[in-house]
Amino acid sequence: MFNCLYYSLLFSLFALQISHEGLAQTAVPNSLFSGGKWIKIETSVTGIHKIYYSWLKNNGFLHPENVKIYGSRNEMMSPANNISPENSPIQLPLQRFKETIGEESLLFFVQGPVRWKYETATGQYHPFRNQPARGFSYFFLTEDTGSDLLLSLSKQPAGNPDLQSSEYDDFELWEEENLNLLESGSRWFTALLTGGNILSKSYTFQDRVENEPVNFSIYAAGRSISPTQMEVTANGNGLGTVRFIPVQISSGSDFASADSLKISRQVTGSGVNLSVKYIGTGSDQCWLDYATLQLRGSLQYRGIPLLFRDGRTMGKDKIVEFQVNGANSSLRLWEVTNPLSPVQQSFQFANGQLTFRIKSDSLRSFILFDPQSKYPEVTKTEVIKNSDIQHVDTPQFLIFTPAAFLDQAGRLAQYH
Predict the structure, then answer these.
(1) What is the DSSP string of 69-96?
(2) For labelling, which of 66, 70, 141, 285 has a CA lying 20 to 30 Å from the CA of 387?
(3) Which among 125, 186, 182, 126 has a CA at the least distance from the CA of 2?
(4) In angstroms, rounded to a whole number, what is the distance separating the alpha carbons of residues 285 and 257?
(5) Does the pLDDT value for residue 243 go beyond 70?
(6) DSSP 411
(7) Alpha-carbon distance 45 to 113, whole Å?
(8) In angstroms, rounded to a whole number, what is the distance separating the alpha carbons of residues 316 and 277?
(9) Distance of alpha carbon 122 from the chain centroid
């Protein structure tokens, strides 16, 4: 799917440096990695992560109690060069936690490579994937710089709530970045289907609010010389069709035509089996890009992290009270609206129900979890070598070219 334009060069690149004499120099600070010990880690999971002190010691840190975590937004940089980048690593707030078994650890939140953007006008969420990240989020550990940055505690607003919510917006994304039709660009597809092929995916939503509809969005592309279509069903019931107009199978023509289906339907039961079938013949082809399911869930803690938000609670100057059942007083509640700056949210607990109040001028996200539980482990990818790229002799202009055009690129460099 298109997030923003991104091109991968499949050949060797040569960079020609062009220096500009006499340009004014502005003083800049040293690069983050200019000194000290740094380890790069990765994870592919959105949610709470835990790093044990024993793991830190095994990876060369002498004082785990001094280790800090740095990271940046897991988003593609804008292709526009007039927009200031926000991808420089910053120090992330964390919590230090002592297990009942005596082991100490660091707790921090990770926003994975897929983020969901809320559209206020329609109440729909749209996925955006950071494709160059290869499905991972990256962070950096050090014990040699910075001071401890712990989560702050958010107090609840005074006064009675304007509304109460015991539900949240739940959604799933069916997408695999497997196929690139033109071996160029940022649009990747999940699977290829030919005439009669069926592709299915099943989901279980234990606490789905069954009197609320499920919103389906399916995106696909087709290539044929005559009209074809993809039939979409949920639990065996027809949802509609994605229709593809014919394309000319010749050079200079569109390679394929794209279409989508967006529909809201009532679905019985907690399970949803989404299925697509391509209706075509001979050499006709179809590619599933991605599909999303959006529904309402009941705020019920089931012993695993509960990540939730509710678009229906937004309103100017409103105070909302969230109510979560099945909880216990030992849980932690973090607001993760800004994944780089999570905040510990205070709450009340009584008779198995956790409640808290917030101002809901904007959409806010939370995660409820048990700090004693096991969480996804991070993977060490490399030890970062010290470098100070802020103070190297950096060219003002770069030309990237395949080897075949090196002479022409040289002439262009001389011209500039």
Answers:
(1) EEE---SPPPS-TTS----S-EEPPBEE
(2) 66
(3) 186
(4) 11
(5) yes
(6) H
(7) 8
(8) 45
(9) 21
Exposure pattern of 143-174 as b/e (b: 16+ CB <10 Å)? bebeeeeebeebebeeeebeeebbbbbbbbeb
Residues 6 or more apart from 81 whose CB is under 8 A from it?
Answer: none
- Quote the tokens at residue 312: 């229906």
Buried b (16+ CB within 10 A) or exposed e, 325-356: eebeeebbbbbbeebbebbbbebeeeeeebbb
CB 305 within 8 A of CB 205: no
Write the single-letter amino acid at 294.
Q
Tokens of 35: 């000194």
CB atoms closer than 10 angstroms to residue 123: 13
Judge whether 105 and 95 are in contact, CB under 8 Å.
no
DSSP letter at 277?
A: E
- 3-state per-residue secondary structure call for 358-410: EECCCCCCEEEECCCCCCCCCEEEEECCCCCHHHCCCCCEEEEECHHHHHHHH
**Number of other CB atoms surrounding residue 96 within 10 Å:** 14
Nearest 5°: phi and psi at 144?
-110, 0
User: Tokens 């006499």 identify what position?
Assistant: 22
Q: What is the pTM of this model?
A: 0.85
Looking only at Cα atoms, what is the longest distance across the chain? 77
Average pLDDT (285-299) is: 97
| pLDDT at site 249 | 84
